Amino acid sequence: MTASVAFIGLGVMGYPMAGHLANGGYTVTVYNRTTEKAKRWAEQYSGRWAATPAEAAQNADIVFACVGNDDDLRAVTLGEHGAFATMKPGSIFVDHTTTSATVAKELAAVAAKINVAFLDAPVSGGQAGAENGALTVMLGGEQAAYEAIGPALNCFAKMHRLLGPVGAGQTAKMVNQICIAGVVQGLAEALHFATHNGLDANAVVDVISKGAAQSWQMENRAHTMVEGQFDFGFAVDWMRKDLGIVLDQAKASGCHLPLTALVDQFYSQVQSMGGGRWDTSSLIALLNRQN
Amino acid sequence: MTASVAFIGLGVMGYPMAGHLANGGYTVTVYNRTTEKAKRWAEQYSGRWAATPAEAAQNADIVFACVGNDDDLRAVTLGEHGAFATMKPGSIFVDHTTTSATVAKELAAVAAKINVAFLDAPVSGGQAGAENGALTVMLGGEQAAYEAIGPALNCFAKMHRLLGPVGAGQTAKMVNQICIAGVVQGLAEALHFATHNGLDANAVVDVISKGAAQSWQMENRAHTMVEGQFDFGFAVDWMRKDLGIVLDQAKASGCHLPLTALVDQFYSQVQSMGGGRWDTSSLIALLNRQN
Amino acid sequence: MTASVAFIGLGVMGYPMAGHLANGGYTVTVYNRTTEKAKRWAEQYSGRWAATPAEAAQNADIVFACVGNDDDLRAVTLGEHGAFATMKPGSIFVDHTTTSATVAKELAAVAAKINVAFLDAPVSGGQAGAENGALTVMLGGEQAAYEAIGPALNCFAKMHRLLGPVGAGQTAKMVNQICIAGVVQGLAEALHFATHNGLDANAVVDVISKGAAQSWQMENRAHTMVEGQFDFGFAVDWMRKDLGIVLDQAKASGCHLPLTALVDQFYSQVQSMGGGRWDTSSLIALLNRQN
Amino acid sequence: MTASVAFIGLGVMGYPMAGHLANGGYTVTVYNRTTEKAKRWAEQYSGRWAATPAEAAQNADIVFACVGNDDDLRAVTLGEHGAFATMKPGSIFVDHTTTSATVAKELAAVAAKINVAFLDAPVSGGQAGAENGALTVMLGGEQAAYEAIGPALNCFAKMHRLLGPVGAGQTAKMVNQICIAGVVQGLAEALHFATHNGLDANAVVDVISKGAAQSWQMENRAHTMVEGQFDFGFAVDWMRKDLGIVLDQAKASGCHLPLTALVDQFYSQVQSMGGGRWDTSSLIALLNRQN
Ligand SMILES: NC(=O)C1=CN([C@@H]2O[C@H](COP(=O)(O)OP(=O)(O)OC[C@H]3O[C@@H](n4cnc5c(N)ncnc54)[C@H](OP(=O)(O)O)[C@@H]3O)[C@@H](O)[C@H]2O)C=CC1
Ligand SMILES: NC(=O)C1=CN([C@@H]2O[C@H](COP(=O)(O)OP(=O)(O)OC[C@H]3O[C@@H](n4cnc5c(N)ncnc54)[C@H](OP(=O)(O)O)[C@@H]3O)[C@@H](O)[C@H]2O)C=CC1
Ligand SMILES: NC(=O)C1=CN([C@@H]2O[C@H](COP(=O)(O)OP(=O)(O)OC[C@H]3O[C@@H](n4cnc5c(N)ncnc54)[C@H](OP(=O)(O)O)[C@@H]3O)[C@@H](O)[C@H]2O)C=CC1
């Protein structure tokens, strides 16, 4: 007997993730705020769609969500017609949204009262990773629940790992974003400097990407940064949302993130340039502008 | 007939580099300011040592140098008993020191007058790379000279490339160091944050090093950073020397490096903590201190 | 006939402010969460105390508040037994707490429904200003309400001004805190540099405080900064609360505050040193530490 | 008998300073690289001009200089036809240029050999201060020499003070510039924030300039910053020269100046916008740009 699952939020990430679950043999019922997308998905994957999260969730063994932010997640779980209204005892809620650890803990507490396990499970790998089923999933929650959803995660993830109690997945994702802020700003300054000093930046990158300066961003973004192409990838607006969460948690936990705080302000300047939807590598545009 | 070469500066880097040349069949005459080290080298590699750079250089087809900084390089080339006093027309001077591009251009101009080709050729890969013959060499200068020394470079480098006219090698090395400044500070903040928020930082690194946050530093330094071990690697004092060169060239060329300038000041604080000889990954020590 | 007023929150600031109103001839009823302080105040100033904000506010023409943060303010206004439960139509609520502009607008909207005018009125001048009746008050709200409370403000303020609609007072206070962040960090670096370079920092300050480097902080804090004395003044914990509000509003309004964001992180480091209650001038302690 | 003095460098600052000396009764011989300016000065003040620094200095009791930077100062003292070639034993050299402390110490040592006293004496107060005879002078050197030139300084300074041995004047000037960097960036962020949030920035400044956020820059530059007027005052190019000196000395003395280093990079961005000759308050232009 195949498990019945629900998927809430068919955005850039959720749509293909739900698709991989359907292709993997799961009986999937989807919910999306904009119904049109849910219908299209149901047609494409021969699945079902529901008019509310509550309806989608009601017979599901696992309910997945991948929506926008903390408030969006509260809406689809606790709101009127939210998933928690109908989830059955013993079922599991898996949140793939990037949110604060606070909301994860808050919802896990509510879920516990109705005997539902909650796993925070933010992903990395971007649109391409979602489409190719090659995401990385960082999880927080109980081991038993994690093991139960392992086969489902395998449908769209090349790597997943339980990193601690509820909130640990979100906190790990924050660690990921902090690293990226430093790497990208450093790379942006380096390429700005290379170009202004007459080097063939691409040639230099080929050489230095063999050593201690190497990074995923260097291998995957340096060439487009040199070209000034940013119309793809992980949007600055999303990055600012994530860094906002990071800086709040840093404050609450007594951590100091001087570079992250500074880069967050630089991203604010990218937004003012009209780059809210540009890839995070667009930090270089600030350095290169002349007026 | 094997080529005769000289090697000036038998420090952490130069000693093994000169050794690889000897092992590769070159007739090597070394010079080192502290003679004791030159004698030891000559014994170990059955080579010769000279009392001055001029003496070491006088019959050499190629003269290599790897000393400390701009002034040191001027001393061993232009100084009394410097290599330029005796180098023969048609020979090649290869500088492996990390210096400014300015001194490279200055020395190349002097060398040209005595018909000596000058190549700036800073390296990356550290002590281990030098010992294992696995350095990366970034070069600036003339194509013909570069081609002529290629076989010699192969003795200690796994990768080398001509990146432009004289100075291009040094400028490329600066690009490398700018990248590292950003990567390391970002990683330091990320690991500081992970630990303070109760995560197993090593486990998180295992997961996120598969994606967009990945870097050489993450793969090779995160674990020691978490342990607070810094007694190895590329020293903060060297890094500050290099970042000083970077910031000077940025100013001269109208580039803006806000992150690099800031991280340079953080390294100044590491020096005040007594960390001048620590690895560059010691930036995390600043974030973790409590008093 | 003298006006009847209420004062909610008898902390470091509120206690003497309420006292000046009593001394100025107002009939004052105070409320404080910790009742002991309210009783002490009532005795000292021959005033009255109430057990709840609602009770204190019920016959008042003006209700003043000076509590801790946004949530505290919501508690004493909207909470059970909050002031809004009993305030009479035509009365005025004046908030001297430093809060977000958001909460000011939110409460003004609620107050409007019960025909109560709301003025946000954060102060500067510190404990000394409150005790000496020499505060500066920055206000947001309606002109008529502002004029009505002018005589009362004169009891404890040497300067007050209406700067725009509701929220304008809080936003002006944020402008104030941003300026301070820059001034203090610059001054801290300057004095750290002066001392490390063998100057008599106090003598230098005497000279440069006549020109373009002059600031209130230089005239009032440089000497104690040089001594390393921080057990007075405006606490780092309060400053971080305020800068958190600033950075949130900057984000919401598309402003970029790189220096402010960075200094906020430095204050986080002061907190880790145990300096949460130190004066904001303690930023210099970070620069001076050696371990 | 009135003293004979020489003045080298008739720029924006030197021209009126030399004029005040002439008006004060000194017999002044001027030198300027561009002779035209020297002739004009001699005519305007009925003084004398010389074709070289050596010629100007040869009978002088005091030789003043106010040229551009370290190298310029070396040129007019040590260079061929430099002042040190002819200065008489027992005379005094007073340098009003803003330079490094290093060059001050270097020249003082050379001067000592010819029995000339050297005082480093950078000024603040800008063009207006020079024209109105209201400069502040920060001095380093011997007490006796300082006392001997006091009456001359009074011609153009409203305040002067000996702050320590040679170099102390320059170091004090650096302290001044560090303060300004912090004040101006903080003020720029504050005004950017005020305007973007709908406040009347001038009104806010009027209010907050009575308290802890007050600064000379706020009182003298806020209004022009709000207007975006920068075509006056102390040029960004000069500020970058000065901050370069500051950061070099910080490095040499083991000081940490994170904010100063960062603001220096922001000034680099102002230069790229074409603002090299704008007043230092132009940092706000970076925050306000939208493209
Ligand atoms: N260590 C590393 O991991 C890396 C270093 N580099 C760069 O390589 C260069 C050398 O580094 P490293 O080998 O570690 O340094 P060391 O300090 O170990 O060696 C420096 C060498 O230069 C000689 N030297 C210094 N000054 C003079 C002088 N004025 N006259 C003559 N000889 C002089 C020293 O002689 P003596 O023995 O007498 O002191 C010694 O042989 C530096 O520019 C460094 O930035 C680049 C990549 C990695
Ligand atoms: N201190 C200063 O120099 C300056 C302070 N400010 C601002 O003024 C405000 C007050 O500061 P300050 O007086 O120093 O603070 P204190 O901590 O001394 O006093 C805070 C007051 O608020 C009361 N309070 C806090 N939370 C609640 C709540 N939830 N319900 C009821 N009462 C509550 C406290 O009651 P209890 O006595 O029971 O704890 C106390 O009376 C803050 O917003 C601060 O940022 C502005 C300028 C200068
Ligand atoms: N302007 C200001 O507001 C302030 C300036 N300062 C400092 O004062 C100094 C002078 O500034 P300012 O008067 O504005 O500068 P200007 O550029 O107006 O004048 C510079 C003067 O130096 C002369 N000069 C420059 N280089 C040489 C050289 N190599 N040989 C001979 N003469 C030379 C110039 O001669 P020529 O006429 O031939 O070009 C000119 O007389 C600087 O160090 C500056 O940082 C300090 C406080 C305020």
Automatic annotation (TrEMBL), chains A, B, C, D:
Does this entry carry the keyword Cell membrane? no
Coiled-coil stretches noted in the UniProt entry, renumbered to this chain: none
Q: Keyword set for this entry?
A: NAD, Oxidoreductase
List the Pfam families: NAD_binding_11 (PF14833), NAD_binding_2 (PF03446)
**Protein origin, superkingdom:** Bacteria
Q: Where are the transmembrane segments?
A: none
- Please state every residue range assigned to the domain named 3-hydroxyisobutyrate dehydrogenase-like NAD-binding: 167-287
SUPFAM superfamilies according to UniProt: 6-phosphogluconate dehydrogenase C-terminal domain-like (SSF48179), NAD(P)-binding Rossmann-fold domains (SSF51735)
Recorded hits in PROSITE patterns, A to Z, give: 3_HYDROXYISOBUT_DH (PS00895)
The residues covered by the 6-phosphogluconate dehydrogenase NADP-binding domain are 5-159
Q: What family name appears in the similarity comment? A: Belongs to the HIBADH-related family.
The protein's name: NAD(P)-dependent oxidoreductase
* UniProt organism field: Fluctibacter halophilus
